Amino acid sequence: MKVAKFGGSSLASSDQVRKVVNIIKDDPARRYIVVSAPGKRHSDDIKVTDLLISLHDKLIAGKDPSRLIEAIYNRYEEIGQAFHVDAHILTAIREDLEKLRMLETKGNEHLYDIILSRGEDNNARLIAGVLKAEGLKARYISPKEIGMYVTDEPKNARILNKAYPIIHKWAKNPDILVIPGFFGITEEGNICTFSRGGSDITGAIIAAGMNAELYENFTDVNGIYSAHPGIIHEPELIKEISYREMRELAYAGFSVFHDEALIPSFQAKIPVVIKNTNNPTHPGTQIVHEKHKHEKTVVGIASDGGFSMIYISKYLMNREVGFTLRVLQILKDFDIKYEHMPSGIDDISIILRANQLTEETEEELLRKIAYEIDPDELRIKHNITMVVVVGEGMREKVGVTAESTAALARKKINIEMINQGSSEVSIMFGIQDKDEKAAIRSLYYTFFD
Ligand code: ASP
What terms describe the molecular function in GO for this protein (predicted)? Predict the structure, then answer.
């Protein structure tokens, strides 16, 4: 039995939904269908989720959301009419959207989540109707009914462990179940969404809960590329990648598959395949627990910008007990998360996402570090990009770091920081934002033809 998740672009129009129907009909093992909200039909289009965000903002501002409701409804209507779905489905969708006007906006901490959840919820109802109209035995199931219990963290929920055995009870269900992605229900019965792009997470949870043989994630590309196609012309497509490698690449901006969706699949050892709705016979990219063999030393190169780096140096730091602890305590006091912390004998660098700092907090933070730590040197650098070279094969090969630094040196790129985790799955370089593209190109052509 397989779980198939279809992303927004796969469900953006009736033409796209036709492809989805054919894919589902093609393999009777595809019994659990997780859907996103309708996405973009073309590059200038607006996703239903983004329209819902505007609707939320309108309601908060006390403005009339009629035009947005109409625009959202039209997206469902076009699909519903093309497949001649039961008329009551479209009526119910319109009513559901109209009801959003009545929501209490003041002090409602789940408002945003409730509104956004309508995108996938209505789409699941619609797609179940489409499958029925196409002669399949299918039905919509709500996250509550299937047991998608999540933490009460608006916009950023996590699954609760108690959800899995409840979900598993549906494993013998003979019909096709169509499940809305992106949100779950708290123990108190509130709606909470995962972070953006979170329908991938729903799919992974359902696959883990059902103990599926495969989790198929249908999107609009043939699979995962070894580098960003916007930077490298026709980069190699990755045939097989391990969860660990994928985790590193997803972290550094490979957005094809949500990084949080890897954990449920990894724990339940369910293989994942990324496939293209527009080219379903292409084998895609397999994400597996253990790779058969490491055909390539490096599988991918990724990068992500928007980091800042605090550099603290103090002579004999290595002999001071609790030095790092004090630095981290200061970060905690400011409610700041850090991402990396490479250290030397007398110095440490703390790399963090710059969006956590305002000019004011930055000043205060540095003042506090200066006061409490009394460093010999303290500076902060902005506009840092992290570039990551990923491959489990590098454990068995000497010289990957040397080749990487040589690749950067050839382009006269200054390395602000190097970090190689002890797992030896990746090497990370901190460089200036302006060098990002040149760095990726030089590294790519070093490890790939
Ligand atoms: N529709 C949601 C978003 O745009 C979730 C998803 O598509 O996975 O973020």
Answer: aspartate kinase activity; ATP binding
